Fold this sequence. Notes:
In chain A, 79% of the residues lie in helices and 0% in strands. Chain A is mainly α. Chain A has a domain at 223-335. The longest helix of chain A is centred in the middle third of the chain and has 35 residues, at 209-243. The radius of gyration of chain B is 28 Å and the shape is elongated. The N and C termini of chain B lie far apart (58 Å). The chains are: A mainly alpha, B alpha/beta. The A-B interface holds A 1, 6, 9-10, 12-14, 16-17, 19, 173, 199, 202-203, 206-209, 211-212, 215, 276, 279, 340-341 and B 220, 224-225, 227-228, 256-257, 260, 263-267, 269-270, 299, 301-302, 405-406, 408-410, 412-414, 416, 432-433.
Amino acid sequence: MTETGRGLARARTMLDLKRHAEAASLLAGIVATDPGNGTAWCLLTLAHLGAGRNTDAAAAAERAIAAAPASDWPYRLASTVQLRLDNTRSALQAAEEARRLAPQEWRCHLCVAQATLATKERFDDAEAAAAKARELAPNEPDVYLISGKVSLERGKRAEARAYQERALALDPEHVGAMNELGKIRLRRLGGAAAAHHFAQAARTAPRETAYGRNVDVAVRRAVASVIYIGSLGTLALNFLAVEAHLSRAQILLGLLVVLAVTAVVGAGQYLRMPAQARPLMRQRSSVLALAVSYGAILASAAILALSPASALPAAAFGVIVLLAVARLAAYRILRRKPDRAPGTTSG
Amino acid sequence: MPDDVPLRVHLATMLFAAGLRDEAVRQVGAVLQRDPGNAAALALLQAPGPVSPGDPTTAPGPAAPSGPTTAPGPDAPSGPDASSGPAGAGGAGQPASERDRPPAPSEYDWTRGEAEVGDTVPPMFVGGEPAGPGDGDPATAAFDVERPALRIDDVAGMTDVKQRLEAAFLAPMRNPELRRLYGKSLRGGLLLYGPPGCGKTFIARAVAGELGAQFLAVSFADVIDMFVGQSERNIHELFSIARRNAPCVLFLDEVDALGQKRSQLRHTPMRSAVNQLLLELDDVTGSNDGVFLLAATNHPWDVDSALRRPGRFDRTLLVLPPDRQAREAVFRFHLRERPIGGIDPARLAELTDGYSGADIAHICESAAERALLDSVRLGSPRLIGQADLEAAIGEVRPSLGPWFDVARNVVSFANEGGVYDDLAAYLKKHRML
């Protein structure tokens, strides 16, 4: 094996071990002595990508294309880099060039599907590319992952779910598919169900903190749904108090019903959560948001019960304002930086 | 002669006198690197401007700031004040042959010099003496079999770790009769895990020293070489070396690289390397021929679960960021060869809760850089002071955040069977969970 060959083998091993920065240093030395080595430039692109240095990765991908213009690999890498940089048009161009160079390579079609999806238009083209990838590589879980993403963007939730489940059937540790299943559930207000998928992904790939943050997002969504139901029930009580001239006792009874319903919904969400996510439901921001919301509900009931009949319309208006403000405040609290980790749903 | 300290001191004095302050500071720095206690150089550092401490080879005292306080102009004498005597450093009136004469170290009265700088140079450290020594070279040499002189007592602070180490590993090793009495097996190795830069390798060397065993360390670079070559044969060879040198502690540093979860590996040779490692581990633990297994990793969650089964690396020890006592020792270690004055390591340790040993090394480096730049800017060299270190602490953030992010994730979602309960307890105690 030549010195360069040994160096590339070392670099591949480092990349496999996720030692991206070390691999990048090694590869930088190799491309300095052998600047025409396309493989080295491609591996350097991968190393920069892994280390989160997207601009460096873009430069390396360009050099890879210059060194190996007839190979599809540098173009696929360039497409991935451009997607990271949010240059969706450039990503699509690179992916299409890769497909032109290697039309029988499933990865090229998948790359086109992914880049087309990112442009948020021409979903049919994305679907066609994903279908071709499925045809060329029916046993590759990644083709189902991207197919599922395309279906989800087209609003076909059941199909998207089926694709992700197929990906998981092929690779039970496919964390991307687990995450996508969570996102599908989250779109249907299934906070607890989504948390199960995200928690599974976090357990399978604990080094990837995005899945843990997604669990947090699902928990907050579940808390938000309890607040939503409570606010809705109180608004209904408010409406009945004005329209049906409810007595004080009836208003208090209505309040009890609202509280009971929200308590049942909240308890249901809590119990359906995976065990690892339950502490998150008890975290400070969740408790504070619920406290603000319940406080507004109790205050609303008190306003309605204590207001004389003649002042009820004005009181009802005040209750609507109070509930709206409380709900906004509660949601704002829930959107705050999580107690345990910063979080947004990652794709 | 780069190591000729008196000559450098002399040169620095001349340079100061000539107004070449930057170069003079460099020379003083070089002197202090070779001889941290050099009184003449320290006197130069203490002086407010370009000074003549006197030629240490000929002048009676190094600390007399008798030279001009301003840079000599064309009409000013280029040497120090003549009042320093006829033997003043590089006096303009001296014959060239004398000025150029190499200094003779034996002519300098060190005792007197020390006495004279006693009042002007502050003590290096203030406050109490350290509770335990913290020196030692944590670096490991690839495939070098050595017999470390370190002992567990050389590890400053970290009482919990030492106690658990004693209970889980050292006591059974040291007491074969009791071990037999209680039927305690020596099978299996110990996996040290924790955030990077917190002394896992240092502890492993101390364990080898404590057992009076040879120490064979395998670094990440060796691991990579194994994978590139004939990995199975290389791993077998490694264990053979350990057996030949028994009693020997075989230390696999960054074992997550060597024993990565096979499901995560695409590179075929690495998969077979993990299999070979498992075979060798079973052989070592089965024959129990004086090879003690130690491993360290920053990412135990990436280690193949097969590697952690009973009889392999079945005992784990969490090595957390250094405690106060350990941090103090780390400060002392990294400052021991620098020109410092008025340092309070206890205060520094107090300010660096949550910092790793590597972070503390970085702080010391930053403080030195700060003092050096200051010296160059002001034209007046000075010692590294407490303020430099405290300012550096303000600038250097603890590097362990990303590790604890992952750790929190692991504890929250992947703590199956309570494997990471000790880590969870630490995170809870520090309100990170």
